[in-house]
Amino acid sequence: MNLIIVESPTKSKTLSKFLGEGYKILASMGHIRDLPERKFGVDTKADFVPDYVISKGKEEKVKEIQEAAKKADKIYLATDPDREGEAIAYHLSAIMQGQKSKGKSQKYERITFHEITKQAIEEALKKPGSINMDLVNAQQARRILDRIVGYKLSPLLWYKIRKGLSAGRVQTVAVRLIVEREREIEKFVPKEYWQIFAQLRKFLGGKMPDSPVFTAILTKKNGNKIEIENQIQAEEIVEELKKADYEVGEVEKKESRRSPPAPFTTSTLQQTASNRLGWSAKKTMQVAQGLYEQGLITYHRTDSTNLALEAINFCREFIKKEFGENYLPESPRVYKTKAKVAQEAHEAIRPTNLEMGKEMGGGDGERLFELIWKRFVACQMKEALVEETIIDINAVGQQNIFVLEARGEAEKFNGWKILYDKAKNNEEIENNGNKEGEEPLELLPPLLKGDALELEKIDPQQKFTQPPARFNEASLIKALEDLGIGRPSTYAPTISTILDRMYVEKKEKNFFPTNLGFAVNDFLLEYFPDIFDYQFTANLEDDLDEIANGQKQWVPVIREFFDPFNKKLNSVSKVAERVAVETETTGETCPTCKEGQVVIRVGRFGKFLSCSRFPKCKYTAPYIPKTGFKCPKCGGDVVHKKTKKGKGFYGCSNYPKCDWASWRKPTK
Fold first, then answer.
1. N or C: which end of the chain has fewer CB within 10 A?
2. The pTM is what?
3. Can you say whether residue 205 is alpha, beta or left, with left for phi > 0 and alpha for psi between -120 and 50 degrees?
4. Contact criterion met (CB below 8 Å) for 173 and 146
5. Residues 81, 345: contact at Cβ < 8 Å?
């Protein structure tokens, strides 16, 4: 009997479909060993030797694996093909070390596959290897670095700010991004400006039917770019434009090719699922994990855009069959991977079979699978072909000559966009190929240089410059990726951590730093500016990558970080003053003492109401945020609540007298 050990029961079930009776498959249920929960567990004086212990609740699982290993002829460690998976395989081998199987020394072999298909598993079993200790050491180094920062820095935060706080290398940088963006917004002073639009049509004479109306925007005055700063200037120009003569100037037509987007990486999948489905990075990874373990997609933790040649060829045959040769490029499309890491899966995220997943029964899995399926097929299809038209319109006034510009486009060949033209939700595509937030251009009527135009309407619009947008999950992940901070497996837990710690909160999908987040960020950047510098954190990630690639040893990397950090820590603990976190007031008087104000505090389990005179007054109450809407049933305040499992919903503040509730936020 051969024993195969994987991480999850779902993965075990999928593998069992392809293997015969000679195999027993067990699931480790994730990591089975880790650093201890209640002590540091790293010997900083002896080359950072970790004190690994059996993870809490895994004792029975370890016994089960050890007993099965004694009876096995061969043991295959089939954990995921990344650093975490390699580390799990290493710990599995450690708990079975020294065991005897049928009187012989036990032999462990490592197999990896990037998709759970019959062919991939059979190929892996034909070419088993050994545990890659470079990958193990890279994961171990990250774990120890995070333990050093967490266990050494967190007590300092408890002493100087508030009990129960934590710090982390990547999470602190993520909070820093959000805090700095919020301060940019606070300092931003909007500047007024005006844009003037004209609705025009070709002049055909009084007896001819009206030609179609199109829109142009004012761009120049007497040959110079125009800037309209206030209403007075706008009104003067509008009056002159109303009496101006309009004529078509230069007409420029050019063909533009719109290439399909690259296949998904972990980061781009999380960003797209956030933008299109409104999902958190955590949910996206959970659903993707399920799809992978069912054998429907390739491994979902990857920063590679490479594709297997067999997959490309199958995709090209599928495109030819479903859409015709006209949609198939002459040669396969190849995407370059920007990432420097070697430890992640070597392929982009794609379906394992284009014919699969058609009857998934709906739900989240099907929605995510459809995103992945379309992105993969589209990436091997022909470009969309668009004809862009730019028309300059001369408006000759009594005193000035103005130029307006009209832009339009006509799709000559839809190419890869045919996948999305048929979609129920066109938001799945990047606004039909335009940049994020841009509207598709209108179709202009046929116009030639010298054609006379007549004015239908002038539309002056007052506008103000906008501050930079707050981060949402998609833009925060992109910012971290662009800075080289974090890796595919870290984005989701980083975001979850900063939300759970109440350093930031999410409102209407955007991140807002809390007072606590401001305080922790400012304290850490004041006393540890180097450690939480963007470039320093990115360089440390590069060091971990070099460990994974076998180019660096992990102990010197940790030592180089630890020695100055520990020295700085001892110094700061002596000189830093305690930080007071500003509390948010509700404007209400304390119902208990009638003297203090009711304030919003942040505790271990989130926000709660308290008296400003605490500890003299012990008043506390749950914090239930109001939405600004009234209950449609009784007129009470609609508040945001959570179920016992933590899922958010909206309900009436008069519960239990009023039982109105909804999963969706009410609208006006």
1. C
2. 0.86
3. left
4. no
5. yes
Q: Which residues of 580-615 are buried (b: 16+ CB within 10 A; e: fewer)?
A: eeeeeeeeeebeeeeebebbbbbeeeebebbbbbbe
Alpha carbon separation from 504 to 477, 507, 579 (Å, rounded) = 15, 10, 18
Domain with CATH 1.10.460.10 in the chain: 138-187+470-575
| Token output for 421 | 């033209």
Give CATH for domain 266-378. 1.10.290.10
Q: In Å, how far from its chain's centre is CA 209?
A: 52
Tokens, residue 450? 């010298």
Largest CA distance in the chain: 104
| Cis, peptide link before residue 656, omega less than 30° from 0 | yes
- Dump pLDDT digits (tens) for 500-535: 888 999 888 899 999 999 999 999 999 999 989 999
How many other C-beta atoms are found inside a 10 Å radius of the C-beta of residue 374?
A: 19
Residue with tokens 């899966």: 345
The crossing angle, in degrees rounded to 10, of helices 266-277 and 491-500 is 50
Sign of CA dihedral 184, 185, 191, 196: positive
| Segment 618-643 mean pLDDT | 84
DSSP state letters, 330-368: SS----------SSS-SS-B-BS-TTSSTTS-SHHHHHH
Which tokens is 188 given? 């931003």
Catalytic residue list: 299
Structurally, at CATH architecture level, domain 192-259+384-464 sits in Distorted Sandwich (2.70)
- At position 126, the amino acid (one-letter code) is K
**CATH of 138-187+470-575 among 3.90.1150.10, 3.30.70.270, 3.60.130.10, 1.10.460.10:** 1.10.460.10
**Is the predicted pLDDT of residue 445 greater than 80, yes or no?**
yes
Calpha distance 120→311 (Å, rounded): 12
What Å distances lie between residue 197 and 11, 116, 460, 472, CA to CA?
A: 59, 56, 6, 32
Q: Is the pLDDT of residue 564 over 90?
A: yes
Q: Report how far residue 477's alpha carbon sits from residue 479's, in angstroms, rounded to the nearest whole number.
A: 5
Instruction: Please give the structure tokens belonging to residue 32.
Output: 């089975």
Taken in order 531, 533, 539, 542, the sign of the CA dihedral is: positive
38: nearest Cα among 24, 26, 53, 49: 53
Amino acid at position 332, single letter = P
Cα 630 to Cα 621, 642, 647, 667, distances in angstroms: 22, 18, 21, 10
Rounded distance between C-alpha atoms, residue 517 and residue 506, angstroms: 13
CATH topology of domain 2-131: Rossmann fold (3.40.50)
Three-class DSSP category at 253: strand
